[in-house]
Amino acid sequence: MEESFEKLKNIVFRREKEPIRIVVLGSPGVGKTALIIRCLTNQFFNHYVPGKEEAYKYTVNVGANKAQLDIMDSKGKNTALISHADAVILVYSVIDKDSFENIKTLIKNVRDLNLNSIPIIVVGNKNDLPKKRQVSKTDAGLLSASYNVKVFESSAAVPVHDVRNIFAEVCRLVFEEKKERRESDPTDPLRRMTLNDIARKNSLSLDSTDFIKLVL
Ligand SMILES: Nc1nc2c(ncn2[C@@H]2O[C@H](COP(=O)(O)OP(=O)(O)OP(=O)(O)O)[C@@H](O)[C@H]2O)c(=O)[nH]1
Ligand SMILES: [Mg+2]
């Protein structure tokens, strides 16, 4: 069991019926799908299926407790999803400078669309390819400071720990940010809706929905 999930359980699992809705966005090919699959299955998904958009339900069990993460691997055109997300993970590739530049536009879009001050976590993926690196850690640090976002580096191609810790950190930030809002409006029906429900409600078509259960 990973320590970060262990720390989460007291704050997350009491509210198990409310999914934590996480939308993952970024330029094509940066590794959004690979990062999600790495987190959920501990496998490296080394096939490129461009632009596939899917919803994942990820149930984390720790002993008798459960938390449901509702993760949407998104192209970013579905503004309804962004406006109802509890957190957004923006992915760039450290070997693709343009994808890093695009993060600034994405941050602005998310802040315009989602009126709650939801956590935005930026992930610089593919850091297993140092010879091809185009975005330095200094660039990432400057972005973090000027846009007030957390930036992590990761790789979907190497073992799992940093990727799962990123998702754990996202949950922690969601509960810090959302605690007051949740407690102040317990009747809000949106609280129990998944991103897939929201997509359906907005007549958005998704390729499929995967239900993946992970037992830690
Ligand atoms: N070396 C390396 N390759 C990676 C990494 N992450 C993803 N890839 C590869 O990069 C390619 C694109 O990865 P995807 O996860 O499909 O990218 P994506 O962001 O989902 O792309 P779109 O769905 O088209 O927007 C695939 O061939 C992956 O195997 C990584 O951390 N390191
Ligand atoms: Mg993809």
UniProtKB/TrEMBL annotation:
<dbReference type="InterPro" id="IPR051065">
    <property type="entry name" value="Ras-related_GTPase"/>
</dbReference>
<dbReference type="Pfam" id="PF00071">
    <property type="entry name" value="Ras"/>
</dbReference>
<dbReference type="InterPro" id="IPR001806">
    <property type="entry name" value="Small_GTPase"/>
</dbReference>
<comment type="similarity">
    <text>Belongs to the small GTPase superfamily. Ras family.</text>
</comment>
<dbReference type="InterPro" id="IPR027417">
    <property type="entry name" value="P-loop_NTPase"/>
</dbReference>
<dbReference type="InterPro" id="IPR005225">
    <property type="entry name" value="Small_GTP-bd"/>
</dbReference>
<keyword id="KW-0378">Hydrolase</keyword>
<protein>
    <recommendedName>
        <fullName>small monomeric GTPase</fullName>
        <ecNumber>3.6.5.2</ecNumber>
    </recommendedName>
</protein>
